[in-house]
Design goal:
By secondary structure, this protein is of the alpha+beta class. The chain contains twelve helices and 17 strands. The chain is elongated, with a radius of gyration of 35 Å. Pfam families: Poly_export, SLBB_2.
């Protein structure tokens, strides 16, 4: 019997048993990452469902938007197109001056001349320079206000000047959209005040349109603050489809969600979700569930780096500066209640399921090994006879 036990202990395992997992968790020398074990229950599921990701609406919680206007003001980097309409002797139209000379120096009051100046760049200081006006500060002004300011400067130099200004390259009122979109580009904002889904659509939408929206992560940078959220959440929660502000940066990233399964399961594998949502029961069934010959069904574990706030609410010790921490959720599949709980427990990207080996697994391994050595090809049933 002693030799039998020694032989059993010498055999290799594919992973720890329930007793070994629990023992390691209680031993500070072995539990170097500081994980805790939590039984899956209805209270736990309710707690996890109450967790909310970093919201886009929180980006402006501590600071005022830089430009709460309507995206129609001029700023550094913009390019302006200025058109001037003059009556009589014109400053900007040599054609009209030639007509006046041909008529003996007599201006023709009814003749109106339109002159379009070369594009004017708004420099880093927010100024433009134009003939007969000089330098003019235009940052923060609408195109109408810029036109009025130019007209005021030309009144003493031109007869009844009328000015039209439009922005031909809007840099100040724009956002950058890049990453997993069809057409990464700078998207100009308009007085219509585009939302985040609008600018993603204007950039061509998702690069892989046949993939699930849950596999796309939207990363928004605003005022040096960053928030991330699945594209599907923004589509389902209108409050998160926030209005874009000049200078925002939107990155769309394709991140296929997957989970891994190890231990005494029908299949050891890494598997993609392929569906908008996935429960623990669905994930276990995809790999064949626990093996009857090896598994311990009351020791099904899910390893996850959980949100630090959730861990604190569970009463687990965690560093005050940490954002996540390791935790092991345990499911008892020998209890019928566990199947109902598994149907409610939602999987997340990167989860790892481990189905523990049965404590009697080594004995059966040892007996199979003895059978193979003594009589290759003979079953245990034959030896028993």
């Amino acid at each position: 019997m002693l030799m039998l036990l020694t032989g059993c202990n010498a055999l290799p395992d594919s992973g720890p048993t329930e007793a070994q997992v629990n023992h390691t968790q209680r031993d500070p020398k072995k539990n170097t990452v500081g994980y805790g074990i939590v039984q899956i229950s209805l209270d736990l599921i309710t707690l996890l469902e109450s967790e909310s990701p970093a919201l886009f609406t929180s980006l402006d919680a501590d600071n005022t938007p830089r430009n709460p206007g309507k995206n129609d003001t001029v700023g550094p980097g913009d390019i302006l197109q200025v058109s001037i309409y003059e009556v009589g002797s014109a400053l900007f139209s040599p054609t009209n001056a030639g007509m006046a000379a041909a008529s003996g120096g007599v201006n023709i009051p009814g003749a109106s001349t339109a002159s379009t100046l070369p594009p004017l760049n708004v420099d880093g200081a927010g100024n433009i320079r134009m003939p007969f006006v000089g330098s003019m500060h235009v940052t923060g002004m609408t195109t109408t206000q810029v036109a009025q300011a130019i007209r005021t400067q030309l009144k003493q130099k031109s007869q009844s000047p009328q000015v039209v200004v439009r922005i031909v390259s809007d840099i100040a009122n724009s956002v950058m959209v890049y990453g997993g979109v069809r057409h990464p580009s700078r998207i100009p904002l308009t007085p219509n005040r585009e939302h985040i889904l609008d600018v993603i659509a204007l950039a061509g939408g998702e690069e892989h349109s046949n993939e699930s929206d849950e596999d796309y992560i939207v990363r928004l940078t605003r005022n040096d603050r960053i928030a991330e959220m699945p594209l599907k959440v923004i589509e389902n929660e209108p409050a998160q489809n926030i209005v874009m502000q000049p200078g925002d940066r939107v990155q769309l990233t394709f991140q296929p969600r997957n989970f891994s399964v190890l231990g005494a399961s029908g299949q050891v594998t890494e598997t993609q979700f392929t569906t908008p949502t996935l429960t623990l029961a669905e994930a276990i069934s995809r790999v064949g569930g626990p093996l009857d010959s090896r598994a311990d069904p009351n020791a099904v574990y899910l390893f996850r780096y959980e949100n630090a706030d959730i861990l604190r609410r569970l009463g687990m010790p965690i560093d005050e500066n940490a954002t996540t921490g390791p935790v092991v959720y345990q499911l008892d599949m020998m209890n019928p209640n566990g199947y109902f709980l598994a149907e409610k427990f939602m999987m997340r990207n990167g989860d790892l399921i481990y189905i523990a080996n049965s404590s009697s697994n080594k004995f059966y391994k040892f007996m199979n090994l003895i059978t193979t050595i003594l009589s290759p090809g003979t079953s245990m049933g034959g030896i028993a006879k």
